[in-house]
Amino acid sequence: MAITLTERAIAHVRGFMAREHNTSGLRLAVKPTGCSGYMYVVELAEAVQDHDQVFDCDGVSVVVDPESLKYLDGTEVDYAREGLNEGFRFDNPNVAATCGCGESFSL
């Protein structure tokens, strides 16, 4: 099982973490929502729980709970800027379809 970050995502997370205190890494999760079923959750991890899986991406810890890992295994996370929009982009091999707005996905 693995989750990876691209160099751009690593640089963005490092910059963001440098401005924050008491962070253990980047927490990735999924939650049921949206028109297609699931939505990605990206936030700073304040702590790592005993049941969490931690992936090291060039010194950045990616923290994932076991339930979310079932949906995120094999995902590569990028950070991209397109015009005035910027944000994380997910290349998740488990996704069957995404909604028209791009905010949610189905498995």
Give an account of the 3D structure.
With 107 residues, the protein is α/β, with parallel strands linked by helices. It has one domain: Hypothetical Protein Aq_1857, Chain: A (Sandwich). It is built from two helices and nine strands, in the order βαββββαββββ. The chain has helices spanning 7-19, 66-72; strands spanning 4-5, 25-33, 37-45, 53-57, 60-64, 76-82, 85-91, 97-98, 105-106. The strands form three sheets. A four-stranded mixed β-sheet has the order 3-2-5-4. A three-stranded mixed β-sheet has the order 1-6-7. The chain has a two-stranded antiparallel sheet with strand order 8-9. β4 and β5 form a beta hairpin. The longest helix is centred in the first third of the chain and has 13 residues, at 7-19. The radius of gyration is 14 Å and the shape is globular. The relative contact order is 0.26. The mean pLDDT is 90.
Short description:
With 107 residues, this protein is α/β, with parallel strands linked by helices. The protein has helices at 7-19, 66-72, and strands at residues 4-5, 25-33, 37-45, 53-57, 60-64, 76-82, 85-91, 97-98, 105-106.
Topology:
Elements: E1 4-5, H1 7-19, E2 25-33, E3 37-45, E4 53-57, E5 60-64, H2 66-72, E6 76-82, E7 85-91, E8 97-98, E9 105-106
Parallel strand pairs: 1-6, 2-5
Antiparallel strand pairs: 2-3, 4-5, 6-7, 8-9
The count of β-strands is 9
Largest sheet: 4 strands, mixed
Widest β-sheet, arrangement of strands: 3-2-5-4
SSE topology string:
EHEEEEHEEEE
Identify the CATH architecture: Sandwich
- How much is the average pLDDT? 90
CATH class assignment: Mainly Beta
Which structural class best describes the helix and strand composition? alpha/beta
Uncertain stretches: none
Distance between the termini: 17 Å
Beta-strand content estimate = 35-45%
Number of helices: 2
Query: What fold name stands as the CATH topology?
Result: Hypothetical Protein Aq_1857, Chain: A
What gross morphology would you assign?
A: globular
Helix proportion of residues, in percent?
Answer: 10-25%
CATH homology superfamily: HesB-like domain
Radius of gyration: 14 Å
